[in-house]
TrEMBL record:
Molecular-function GO terms, alphabetical: 4 iron, 4 sulfur cluster binding; metal ion binding; oxidoreductase activity
Protein species of origin: Blautia obeum
Cofactor: [4Fe-4S] cluster
Protein's recorded name: Radical SAM protein
Entry-linked InterPro entries: Aldolase_TIM, MoaA_NifB_PqqE_Fe-S-bd_CS, rSAM, rSAM_sf, Sulphatase_maturase_rSAM
Keywords for this protein: 4Fe-4S, Iron, Iron-sulfur, Metal-binding, S-adenosyl-L-methionine
C-alpha cells in the first residue's frame, strides 16, 4: 500500500499547547495541488504489490477544508478506477466540527476516522482549548452520537488519539479508563517527545504506563473482547521481529504533502524534503534517506533491544529533536524499554510463539 498524507489545511479552530505544527501558517491547499499530489501517489501505488492507495487527510483541522476533502476524494476515486487501484481514505479530526453531512460522507467513502481526545474534561481542557481559551471537551461529547452513527453504519470503530505530555501524564491511567468506559475500543497513545521530561516526570510516566498496561490486560481477560492499544501492538511486533535501521522506509511507500505542494518523507523538515508536486519526486534524495548506513549511537551501545528497536531508527524525529538522525529521543527510548520489560514479565514463551505465528500469518503472508 502507498500512503499519501495530504495537509489540506495548515489552520485549526483549536490552539492545542503541544501541537507539533507550532504556530499555524493559516494556509489552504489548492485543488490543483491536491490533484497533482494524488497523480504522483497513484503512479507510486501502481508499483505496490497490493495496488492500494491510502489518502490520509490531515491539518491543522482538516474539516475546516471539508469541500477540498470532498473534491480530493472524488478525484482519487476517479483516478484509481482508471488504473484499477484500490483506494482507501482516512483522517484525524479534533471532533468539534462534526456534522451529519460529514458523517454521511465518511460512511459513504468508508473512511477510517481518528478523533483527538485526551481524557475526561479536566484532562482534555488542559491542553486542547480554542484561541479564546475555551475547552473543547463539551463540543466533542455533544458530537459523540454522530461518531456512534458512523460506527453503526460502517461497522468500523472510531480510533481515539490521546497525547500524553508533561502536564497530564499523571492522569494517563485515569484517562485510559475513562475512554474504556465511553466504549472506545481503539486507543492510540502518543507520548509527547517535544516537551521536556525531567527525571520525576519520567518516573511518574513509567508508573502510569504500567497501570495502563494492567487496565488493558485486565479488560481483555475479563471481557474476552478485542481491544486495540497502539503502544502494545507496536511494541509486541517489534519485540518479536528484528527490525533494520529506518524500518518504516518513509519516502518509498509513503509521502507527506504540505499545503504549498512540498513533498516530504513524513514531516515538514527541509532535510527530509523529497520533491514538489510540480517537479515530482526526487528519487536520488529518497534513496539517500532510505538507504542511509546504520551507525550505533553511544546511547544505544550495549542495549539488549538494539536489534528490535524502531526508536533508534526514526530519522525524522531524532533529527527534529536532537539534530542527529542516529541519536534516539530519550523518552521514546525509555518507553520502548518499559514496554519490552512488560512484555517479558507478562507473556510466556508459548504465548509469544503463538503471537509470532499470528503476526506472520496476518502481516507477512497477507501483507497487512
Amino acid at each position: 500500500m502507498y500512503t499519501l498524507s495530504l495537509e489540506i489545511i495548515n489552520k485549526c479552530n483549536l490552539n492545542c499547547t503541544y501541537c507539533y505544527l507550532g504556530e499555524k501558517k493559516n494556509t489552504y491547499m489548492s485543488l490543483e495541488t491536491a490533484q497533482k499530489a494524488i497523480d504522483i501517489a497513484v503512479h507510486e501505488a501502481n508499483k505496490q504489490y497490493d495496488r492500494t492507495l491510502m489518502v490520509y487527510f490531515i491539518g491543522g483541522e482538516p474539516l475546516m477544508a471539508f469541500n477540498l476533502m470532498k473534491d480530493a476524494v472524488g478525484y482519487t476515486k476517479k483516478k484509481c478506477q482508471e488504473t484499477n487501484l484500490i483506494c482507501k481514505f482516512s483522517t484525524t479530526i479534533n471532533g468539534t466540527l462534526v456534522t451529519d453531512e460529514i458523517i454521511d460522507f465518511f460512511v459513504e467513502n468508508t473512511f477510517e476516522v481518528k478523533v483527538s481526545l485526551d481524557g475526561p474534561e479536566y484532562v482534555q481542557n488542559l491542553n486542547r482549548r480554542d484561541y479564546a481559551g475555551n475547552g473543547s471537551f463539551e463540543k466533542i461529547m455533544k458530537n459523540l452520537p454522530l461518531l456512534r452513527k458512523y460506527e453503526q453504519a460502517t461497522g468500523n470503530q472510531i480510533s481515539i488519539a490521546s497525547v500524553v505530555t508533561s502536564n497530564n501524564y499523571q492522569y494517563y491511567a485515569e484517562s485510559f479508563q475513562f475512554l474504556l468506559d465511553l466504549g472506545i475500543r481503539k486507543l492510540e497513545s502518543g507520548i509527547d517527545h517535544y516537551c521536556m521530561w525531567n527525571e520525576n516526570d519520567l518516573h511518574g510516566l513509567k508508573e502510569q504506563l504500567e497501570q495502563v498496561f494492567y487496565l488493558y490486560k485486565n479488560y481483555i481477560i475479563q471481557t474476552r473482547q478485542m481491544l486495540f492499544w497502539n503502544l502494545w501492538e507496536q511494541h509486541v511486533k517489534s519485540y518479536l521481529f528484528p527490525c533494520m535501521f529506518y524500518a518504516c522506509k518513509a519516502g518509498l511507500a509513503t509521502c507527506y504533502v504540505t499545503t504549498d505542494g512540498g513533498i516530504y518523507t513524513c514531516s515538514e523538515l527541509p532535510e527530509f524534503k523529497i520533491g514538489t508536486v510540480k517537479a515530482g519526486l526526487d528519487v536520488p534524495r529518497i534513496r539517500e534517506i532510505v538507504y542511509l548506513n546504520d551507525k550505533v549511537d553511544s546511547m544505544c551501545e550495549g542495549c539488549e533491544y538494539i536489534n528490535h528497536c524502531k526508536t533508534r531508527g526514526c530519522q525524522t524525529s531524532n533529527y527534529e529533536v536532537n539534530k542527529d538522525v542516529y541519536r534516539p529521543i530519550e523518552v521514546n527510548c525509555k518507553v520502548t524499554k518499559w514496554m519490552y520489560n512488560l512484555i517479558k514479565e507478562n507473556l510466556s514463551e508459548k504465548q509469544l510463539n503463538n503471537m509470532k505465528e499470528e503476526y506472520e500469518r496476518r502481516y507477512i503472508r497477507h501483507g497487512k
